[in-house]
Amino acid sequence: MAAPGKVAAFRLPPLPTVGDIIKLFRLKAQKQLSQNFLLDLRLTDKIVRQAGELKNAHVCEVGPGPGGITRSILSAGVEQLLLIEKDARFIPGLQMLSEAAPGKVRIVHGDILTYKMEKVFPKHLKKNWEDEPPNIHIIGNLPFSVSTPLIIKWLENVSKKDGPFIYGRTQMTLTFQKEVAERLTANPGGKQRSRLSIMSQHLCTVENCFVIPGQAFVPKPEVDVAVVHFTPLVQPKIQQPFELVEKVVKSVFQFRRKYCFRGIGTLFPERGRLKRTEELMKTANVDPTLRPFQLSMSQFRNLCDTYRKMCDEDPSLFMYNYREELKQKKMRPLLKSTSQLEQTI
Ligand code: SAM
Question: pTM to 2 decimals?
Fold first, then answer.
């Protein structure tokens, strides 16, 4: 768990309020971009405190918008703040903040989903993976449609130690729709246990910090929001390539309500499926009648390790795609009747 940081290590000069900035630059929230703003600086301070001590830290804020969280990050006494904002309308307001904290802020008008983070922080901040996390943080209140694909991309980066994790175990403090935050942190047996739980918890310590009620945002979203903090683990709980773990986990959860045997079977071609599924489950020591959400992390690890051995013995296995086989099976009668028709013509 990140030690709660102090905010107000740096005093910004008097500025128009975030609400005034919104009015001044006519920053009407765009519904299609799921823009919901936080205007209460006590709340933005609370979010920023979840990141831990930020004094002299290098921070990347994703989606600063009108700059509420940005002010709290600056007040925490950071050394450098990189802002990545997709919507050009926010840039002038952010420039005003940049002038209030000379030499500290860099503004990038760009898309975080494609932005390359490998070279943005100074080299001297790099830490060995086994060491304490570097003094680099990612903080953001993003639209839900961006935060979920983004965390999956960053989890892959954690697994490969690239992207923002080229600097070591960079910590992230991000907001998610409350239900997604519950999935990210769900324990075995929990109602929300899902693919996201395994993918995040096998690579990071994931902490569901607190819930922000929808009415704290302007305009109010349909759902509540939660702040989640991630610290990459020194040793992932499953020591297999990201793509392999993702494939096994996706298969297991394919049939959520059925015995896990059903989903795991989709890892194998129809011919020999039963025998190979039994072999996998027996070697991995997993009870086939457990439901996917009941499986523990060590059971997922055993499944991944055993599946890896089976793939090493049969290199074509990893390429097998259950959905593709189903599609071809459905097409076969159609192709047969077309060729019969061609023969009669
Ligand atoms: N951080 C501000 C706050 O808390 O009040 C704004 C939050 S609003 C939910 C999300 C912000 O992320 C918007 O400013 C939006 O323009 C920006 N955004 C959306 N998609 C983005 C992307 N792919 N890359 C960077 N910024 C993005």
Answer: 0.92
